Amino acid sequence: MLRRLDSALFPSLLVLLFLSLFLGGAQMGIAYDELFHIPAGYTFVDTGVRRSTTEHTPLGHWLTGLALTAIDPHYSRVAYLRADFSGAAFDFGYRFFQQNEASHGILLLVARLPLQLASILGAAYCYWLARSLGGRTAGIVALVLVATCPLYVAWSRYVYLDALLAVAMIATLSHLIWYLRAPSAARAAALGVSLAGALTAKYSGACLVPIVALSLLLPSSLVGGQVRPPRLRWLEAGLVLSVAMLSVWLLFGCPRDLMFYLRGYSRIYSSAIPNYQFYLLGHFRQSFWYFYPTLFAVKSTLTTLVGTGVAVALLVAKGRRGDARTYFAISLLLVTAFTFLFVTSLKALPIGARYLVPMYPPLYVSIGWAVSRIAPGPHRPWALAIVGLLGLHHVTASLRLFPDEMAYFNELVGGPARGIYVSNDASLDAGQNLPRLAHYLRRRGNPPIKLRYQGTDSPERYGIRSAPISPAEWDGQLQPGLYAVSSYSLVYGMLEARQRPQHLDWLSTLHPKAVIGHAIYVYDVPAR
């Protein structure tokens, strides 16, 4: 029976995930970074010259650009080859989308599709790896969790690099574990290519290099694989890293500068605003050392937090008494997830929760393994009941938010409605909700509005009749009519009110008529 259930659930859950990504993305406008990622991908593939957005790695650009060749978007190759791409190349991005206004909707759908499909592959890897470690039950649990993980689903819809890195990381960890169990030339090549995928998905994928190298060099008695002499282990590590480096060089377009990777890494935050005040839990600071651990605690479902704790506890309690290969594999997954959290906390700007997406696949594989150990059958009904309730909570937490999973916050902070008081920016909104605002306004007869929007999309594209909110109105001298304000502006309006007492703190003082996607607040000011 379990085999038949497994055979039905595996494709069904992957289809469910795809529909969630595709149909949810179809309702959304341009997310902030897509303004430069999408043109960067197509121009790179079309010209073979990588000039735009070179502070980012190219794998996502390759995938997007190859897909867009099917519709051949318009742009000036001469302008591209002469343009100034310092910073994030916003100007070129605006021109690119303006030149393709007539095909805007299909352009976004096509550009996003390969990264959405990559996320389906990432979910499949979770299932395959968990099943190889804990059987069918582990595979199904891991797949259910990742396919309905709010952060994984939310950031897999767009041409962003975080979910792509999550896919490449779980693929690398899978091939590493499978290789250690049964080494072969084909598995070494697959490991090297998947590691290259992580390195070219995002620069933070480099944290996998020491993990992979160390795992290959460890004695066989520790990893539970076939016995291999030290010299052979060194050769294996060298082969895998060589395949990875060659693949990285090819994906970067065969640069002549041998330091290309380090130079690209050094430009990651070249466009960052000096002395910028980041936001967390009502405070504004230039840095928060606890930013990402806090976001992990409040942006993960309670099921994820409980399941991770159980997996760690079970691993410690079992010690080395079980299968050494499985013990090492689960330890590797958990260590990688929390190493990534540590590195992200240490190196990344406190921008938002999307940076945490790569943590979840290895955690869900570990949770799947834990469930397969503590709830193996009907003789433990209490365990099955708890697992079922936690699984139902996780699934419904995601599904009831569709397509606004980006705004998910768990019950520890009051849920999505209270998320704006916890974090902002890439934890809540990427500027993608203008089509949803337009839909809301059409239901009201499409009245004109005053708009303060934070994003890279255009209100006119969706028929929104808007004018900017004047400085006097922003300070509180409101006129009768509709106002729409992005969550980002509301949050930094709090900071402005602390710095200038005459400024109106909209978020704390006014009550919205509607909230679009938990990200755009609509206020209806009545006539006096």
User: Percent range for helical residues?
Assistant: 55-70%
Please state the structural category: mainly alpha
Count of extended strands: 7
Poorly predicted sequence stretches spanning 5 or more consecutive residues: none
Strand-residue fraction? 5-15%
Described by strand count, sense and barrel closure, the largest sheet is: 5 strands, mixed
Shape: globular
First-last Cα distance = 68 Å
**Order of strands in the sheet with most strands:** 4-3-5-7-6
Name the helix and strand elements from N-terminus to C-terminus, one letter apiece: HHHHHHHHHHHHHEEHHHHHHEEHEHHEE
Count of DSSP H/I helices: 22
What features would you describe in this structure?
There is one protein chain. The model has no long low-confidence stretch (mean pLDDT 92). α3 packs across α6. The chain contains 22 helices and seven strands. β1 and β2 form a beta hairpin. It is globular and about 80 Å long. The protein folds into three domains: 31-99, no CATH class; 118-266 and 277-407, no CATH class; 433-525, no CATH class. Strands 4-3-5-7-6 form a five-stranded mixed β-sheet. It has a two-stranded antiparallel ribbon with strand order 1-2. The protein is mostly helical. The protein has helices spanning 2-26, 34-47, 59-68, 77-82, 90-99, 104-147, 150-156, 162-181, 185-201, 208-217, 220-223, 230-251, 260-266, 291-299, 302-318, 324-347, 360-374, 381-399, 434-443, 471-475, 487-499, 506-509, and strands spanning 278-280, 283-285, 449-452, 466-468, 481-486, 514-516, 520-525. It starts with a helix and ends with a strand.
